[in-house]
Amino acid sequence: MSEVNDTEDVPSADVLAAVFAHRSDLAVRYVRSLAAEGVLRGLIGPRESGRLWTRHVLNSAVVAELIAPGASVVDIGSGAGLPGIPLAIARPDCTVILVEPLLRRTVYLAEIVAELGLTNCRVLRGRAEDVIGRLGAGATEGADVVTSRAVAPLAKLARWSVPLLRVGGQFLPLKGASAADEVARDTAELAALGLGPAEVLDVGDGVVDPPTHVVRAELLRRVPGSVPGKAGGKGVVPKSVGRKRAG
Question: How far apart are CA 68 and CA 65, in angstroms?
Fold first, then answer.
């Protein structure tokens, strides 16, 4: 396992098996790619190469415990594939769509998805608001889960995510230590988008330290005008919400 990279954060075989089961080898290959091509292409900072497992890959993969069997998952602003690729590896029963607007990133994502043989994962180039209707089967209803990592403040992230969710689906962004503060600040905005009460969950205890902070809220209703191009307006949120800054 020491050949994966030159870092000291390589997990034990037991941890890898607990998170990725029989697909641990795919996670190892993904980390190797991030440490080489990811850094070379500017998708991962060179200083991050020493903590790819704990800070990035395992930090993302542990969110799988919050996702129902067979769920459709959309990862917006996927970047180098986080959290979408670790989730696709850990959960072969789920379908994962990586949404990313930048060409150089989508080229890498398509290459690594093909290299790893992740048949449950595909890449869409575009902003979140551009890919509505391009998600494939069930796109008219939306995905079961929309997730993201280190993309935007919570309210802005919700405005991008809600149009991609089905009613009853889960808004599930990974957040930092300020997650509870963001929820408290943006409660009104989330409710205006049709989301139910948000909670902050810590996942990955015993796998990552500190644990991964995840905000979870269910889409309770579709707000008129919340989907671009639908009757009621072109914006993704009512005007009173759209004008308010989200941190």
Answer: 8
